[in-house]
Amino acid sequence: MITDNDLYTLAIFLGSLSMLLIVLYHFLEVNAQDDTHSGSKSNLSSDKNSAIMPEKKGKTTEADPAPVQQGGIKGKEKGTVR
Fold this sequence. Notes:
Elements: H1 4-30, H2 41-52
């Protein structure tokens, strides 16, 4: 049967190993080179934006901004101290 000491050692080892793997993954991900070689940087950034927000065809209109309410908490006025 596994003892408390063995379980503690196993937990520390597995936790440390997982943290090292996470750090290694992030290091490799940050330093990875992109596979795309065609186009300039401006084309790449516009491609990324078009994938996130595709262009709408036809006539587009912008909605009016949401109205801003003046004042504070309902039932209380500015400057009142209790």
